[in-house]
Amino acid sequence: MASEEDNEHQTIPTSAITFVETEHGRLRRKQRGIDKKDLQAAKKYGTRVSSHPRSNGDPTSKYTWKGIVYIANDHTGEEVTSYALPIALEKIPISNEMQHHHDEAARTISEDKTQWLSNTVIVVDTSGSMKNSDVWDTRTRLDSVWLSVALDFIASRIESGSASGMDVISVVSMGNDATPLIREQPTTWVLYNEIIDFYSNKTISPFQHGNYIPSLDMAEKLLTSNSNESCAMGLSFISDGRPSDHALYRVDRYQCDEMIVDRVAMLAKRFGRRMQFDAVGIGSDESFDTLQQMVDEAEDFGVKASMRLPSSSSSALGDVLHSFASSITSTQTEMTDTCTMKQQHIRNVQRESRIKASQNITQVTEEDFFIYNRDNVHRMVYEEKYQDGVGYKGSFQSTELQHPDADSVAFNQGPFGEGAERFAYRFYELLGDQITIVGKPLVAKESRYIIEDGLDDQKSRMKFVQTFCKTQQLAGRIAKEFNEKIDSLHIVDGKTPRVEFLDCCVYQMNDTNLGKVSVLVEEKIDQSKWKKWNANNGFVDGMKEVPAFNDRDLQSAMHSMQNLDLGMLEEGDEEEESDNDSEDATIEGERRAPTIIFSPSEVAQAFSHFSYWATGRKRLVCDIQGVFCEEVNKLRLSDPVIHYYNSKKDGRKMVHGRTDRGRKGFAMFFETHECSRLCRLVTKGFKRPARA
Q1: Digit-coded pLDDT (tens) for 294-343
Q2: Most Cβ neighbours (<10 Å): which of 420, 453, 658, 665?
């Protein structure tokens, strides 16, 4: 039966329900995002039970309504505190089969590190401030971390199939020192239950300070315990404020930050692109400048890094960890051969700071560069000629160094950049003093991978650079045809950018320790303006995420390609407007029709589409990336991918290297490609197979 107080509450507005606000209560409501009207509703409609008395003996009541708990002093009417009920999680029942799977995976992880697909370390701040209750739907900041790790980093990956027992996870507690709570365990439901224990049983208590340096040292130890260069790396560093290390090491905060950033630099130099580093600020503290410095340093050495701003709910933190997991999966995919699904072994190098690499220099030092005199350098250029009845044929020809005064070359000891396939190094030609630079700054590129197709490393290097040199020169020839096509279209304004690929060649150096080292060399262009307009996996500039193509998607896309192969666009008559597009159309016999200026992005996408038709539907140039140079109004491009497929020679695979996805590459491109008017203009008139 309802009490008189309850009946009274039903007859008055919620806004009239009174309670005595306190400073402590207001602070807690602000931290937890609870409005005053939420408490009024809880007192009016919620269930009421007696709670623990105050220290002075005053009785209290607890009101619960729609997930919010409000505690009030019955004697004074003052609010004591309020909070959202935490999410309840139950452990997953572990069958004998599931336990056996976990145990076998753990044994393999311990005995054979070449089987690891990824190695992730999650550093969790467990300092005293992590017991604060300002994250919605959990009692403490630390609870929100365990909840998000369990649901969004472990459970979601197991359920989606994006992680397996060979995806290794370690969890480090960051307090006064660094304690591995979980060390190198497989991603299984057994591990999920361990994290749930932290969340439900409160086995880890927030206490004392949060020292970054010991935790980064422990993370480095765990990440470098596996020397397998094909293993993707992840480091998630979750903290709710400034580091406390200055007191531990007796230095000022500036020196402390320098020490922390140096630790990050050591990891970044080693792992570069194959490591995902996320610094995560949690709670309401705004002192996250050290975390931002860590991210900036990691990015300077090519690490895929991000700074995540404070999270006010466990779901927001969960989104961060889900994104972190997706990035690691993307790195795994990159390092797996798309045709054979074999892991690729990446060269063990120490990366160079991008900031340092961007500096203009006139001389080199032996501290930073390998230097080779003329007698130990062999330069080759690829020359291609057209032969009637045969098509284009080319070969590599020996030639002199590029600058007439050059007598040696300098090859930087560490790469300043890396893509999915290549490392990029600073490279210069030198005078006879082997110090002074002559000519333009150059870039040398080599494969990130150690051995290809069972060849020894020297032959593998040469095969790689020759393949990509020929690919880039072929893309350059198609670009010239594209420009000629645009020049012939009077409707296209002359201010529309043209396309060119950087001229490249091959240098081979005789190294005392490494033998013959072969690299592809081209002019260095402004990296700060570098842009990717499309990729070889269906990505197009403007997409937030790379599309995920499963086998069914690809089969559907390849089926759609049949319409294209039957010549749906071959005659170029898909638009009525075409009659005057390439004519000197006039108005009243005098004024030429208005011309159109197309953007660099439209030009990039149209070029890829054009390349398919210009090569008789056998090749498609994509991974369009480089710099739009306004001075010459050109897209100056490098590192292209060419997909090749010939129905009459179906057995030929990866003709243009490992990134050549053949007919699947065609399908991925056309699945996401949206034709512009420029596409329709440049793909007209291909009535017979063109020379490829």
Answers
A1: 999 999 999 999 998 866 677 788 899 999 999 999 888 877 754 445 66
A2: 665
- Whether 114 is in a domain gets the answer yes
Nearest to 207 by CA among 176, 239, 178: 176
Domain for residue 92, yes or no? no
Within-domain flag for 588? yes
In the Cβ-directed half-sphere of 286, how many Cα atoms lie within 13 Å? 0
Strands 275-282 and 232-239: parallel
282: domain CATH number is 3.40.50.410
pLDDT at 551: 62
Q: Which domain holds residue 192?
A: 110-334
Q: What is the pLDDT of residue 450?
A: 79
* Alpha helix ranges (H) inside 377-505: 457-487
Q: Do 604 and 487 belong to one domain?
A: yes
Q: Is 349 contained in some domain?
A: no
Q: Which of 69, 84, 99 is the last residue of a domain?
A: 84
H helix or E strand, kind and range, residue 662: helix 662-672
**Mean pLDDT across 139-146:** 89
Concatenating the DSSP letter of every residue in 490-555 gives: TTB-TTS-EEEEPPEEEEEEEETTTEEEEEEEEE---GGG-EE-B-TTS-BTT-SS-----HHHHH
Mean of the pLDDT values across residues 191-201?
95
Count of C-beta atoms within a 10 Å radius of residue 558: 17
State how many domains the chain has: 3
Pairing of strands 391-399, 408-412: unpaired
pTM flag (> 0.85): no
- Checking if the pLDDT of 115 tops 60, the result is yes
- Residue 142: pLDDT above 70? yes
